[in-house]
Amino acid sequence: MKRRDFLKTAGTGSLLAGGLSAPFIARGATRIRWKMVTTWPKNFPGLGTGANHLAKLITEMSGGRLQVKVYGAKELVPAFEVFDAVSRGTAQMGHGAAYYWKGKVEAAQFFAAVPFGLTADEMNGWLYHGGGMELWRKLYEPFGLIPAAAGNTGVQMGGWFNREIRSLADMKGLKMRIPGLGGEVLRRLGGTPVNLPGGEIYTSLQSGAIDATEWVGPYNDLAFGLYKAAKYYYYPGWHEPGTTLEALINRKAFAALPKDLQAIVQNACRVVNQDMLAEYMARNNQALHTLVTRHKVQLRAFPDEVLARLRQLSEEVVQEVAAKDKATRAIYDSFRAFRNQVGEWQRISELAYLKARR
Ligand code: CA
To answer: Both ends of the chain: CA-CA distance in Å?
Structure first.
């Protein structure tokens, strides 16, 4: 391109500001500011810091043209109002987990965690290359929202209990903080599920308002000090085998962005989605070691009998949710077909390898 043509393309207005660099100054001047509301306590390890990371990536990758400011739970809106806040445009972005919105859109739970469902790698396979993402976008369309996978905790822990679980009978009458479909499974076992945001878990467990809680895994649970409120720490996290965290984007705000900033927002979510999983993989066992050796936490596996019943009830619960409407059915069918086909591969790959490695 000749210099003359370039200057013409760049627009005559910018010439006054001083030659070739002018268009870039003009571009930099249109600075967009977004708010990101989150369901996490501000700066909470892994989850809150994951949201911070996402905001920082977008701000940096855009050279400051799109600046995202993060608000912890309650700073702008309460944890469980994030969905509505982004939907109505109070904030342009949100970070949380889709199962928190089950009261609004029940099928959203498939995009966070399903008991005995997909692991983190499997979730990513389903979302990015198995049709999951398209279904998720369609589900949130009526709310003016675009969802994105933006973090994954990997397999979570079964939770903290103030008494030992030796049989199915020990699950009866248990008042436990456990969100999503897992909560419904507990209810059918005779327990009482409670949904509390992260910031209220510790005091509820310590005061005896709840008997047990699940949260995430050693890395997060250590940071919350849950070992001070309950002694028994159970595995595996049957109810959350690879929880996907979610970025919510206001559709109008997204549409107003130039194409390159749209690509930055979407790809920053993808980076954070992968990076958070790597962080949990790196930190969980270090934290578990601290919990067991320094804080004398009693690590326990759920008895086989309990897991078998939980699996059975989970199938029931998930199928009932799927039967409620056509959209949910389509999501369930896609999810289930993916789990079945990927399961065959997992048996002769990850599972066989980890068994062989020991
Ligand atoms: Ca959890």
So the answer is: 62
Longest Cα–Cα distance in the chain = 83
| Residue spans per domain, the chain | 159-239+287-326
Ligand 1 centroid, distance to 188 Cα (angstroms): 19
Distance 330 CA to ligand 1 centre (A): 25
Which pLDDT score, from 0 to 100, does residue 300 have?
98
The architecture of the domain spanning 159-239+287-326 is: 3-Layer(aba) Sandwich (3.40)
Distances (CA, A) of 194 to 177, 186, 268: 4, 10, 33
Q: How confident is the model at residue 199 (pLDDT cuts 50, 70, 90)?
A: confident
Q: What mean pLDDT comes out for the span 327-352?
A: 96
The Å distance, Cα 193 to ligand 1 centre, comes to: 13
282 CA → ligand 1 middle, Å: 18
Distance (Å) from CA 6 to ligand 1 centroid: 55
pTM for this model (two decimals): 0.88
- Residue 231 in this model has a pLDDT that exceeds 90: yes
pLDDT tens column, 296-309: 999 999 999 999 99
Cα of 242 from ligand 1 centre, angstroms: 10
Q: Quick one: tokens of 274?
A: 């992968």
d(CA 321, CA 316): 9
